Amino acid sequence: MPYKFTFDLSRIPRFFFTEIARLGYEKKMHKKAGDTMYRMLRKFKVQEATGLNLTDAIVLLEDLVEMQARNLIERENFTKTKKRALFLPHCSRKYMDNRCKATFDSETPSYKCAHCSPDCLINRAVSYAEKKGYDVYVLPGGSCVPKILKGKRYEGVVGVACGEEIRLSGDLLKSMNVAGQAVPLIRNGCANTAFNLETLVNVL
Ligand code: SF4
């Protein structure tokens, strides 16, 4: 289930995500992270940059911190896995209409990128991950994840999505004993969503 609000963190300094990583670590260490979250919202002017109200900004930040904490907890298990998949959101394609030359496999279900645009985020992520040996799925929605996982029996999965979807998928991965790593969207919505490619490369 996606967020009921939209956000765009692309104008917030990259240092914000370093702080998220630190908070995630603190959370993993069971330290109190709540006060720091409020300070971060003010420090990075998250509400001003995104237009989010305080409640939504906190939900977003909490999910990002939770995601980071899970990444840290799962990292060691993940690095030991061999059979891996990458799940990417179809809404990060450069085009959402017929200018995108990807084919859709309704059986899987997933788009197969045709690499039509060198500057397409999905194209670059797919190319990099496939070279590293990942099976890559460009998903029309998070509801496709259980079907793929049940059929393919991956040991490790990297998912790019908004915090809420990653939290739900994280529970599923745990129940299936699959080691997961997550990369957050820095801009959500129905189209033109974005993630940081450098972050993804580091996770892969
Ligand atoms: S590079 Fe791939 S995902 Fe991007 S627009 Fe072209 S076919 Fe679609």
What proportion of the residues form beta strands (DSSP E)? 15-25%
Please compute the radius of gyration using only Cα atoms. Answer: 17 Å
Q: What bound compounds does this protein have?
A: iron/sulfur cluster
Q: What's the helix-strand series?
A: HHHHEEEHEHEHEEH
- Annotation field: number of helices: 8
Structural class: alpha/beta
Q: What does this molecule look like?
A:
The chain has 204 residues and is an alpha/beta fold. The chain has one domain. It is built from eight helices and seven strands; from the N terminus they run H-H-H-H-E-E-E-H-E-H-E-H-E-E-H. The strands form two sheets. The chain has a five-stranded mixed β-sheet. A hairpin with a 4-residue loop joins strand 2 (103-105) and strand 3 (110-112). Helix 1 crosses helix 4 and helix 4 (54-79) packs parallel to helix 7 (163-175). The radius of gyration is 17 Å and the shape is globular. The two termini are 25 Å apart. The structure holds iron/sulfur cluster (SF4). Residues 93-95, 100-102, 113-117, 120, 122-123 line the site of iron/sulfur cluster (SF4).
Summary of the model, kept short:
This protein is an alpha/beta fold. The chain has 8 helices and 7 strands.
SSE order and pairing:
Blueprint lengths: L14 H14 L5 H10 L2 H5 L3 H26 L4 E6 L13 E3 L4 E3 L8 H11 L3 E5 L5 H8 L3 E6 L1 H13 L3 E9 L6 E2 L1 H7 L1
Parallel strand pairs: 1-4, 1-5, 5-6
Antiparallel strand pairs: 2-3, 6-7
Helix pairs in contact: 1-4, 4-7
Bound molecules: iron/sulfur cluster.
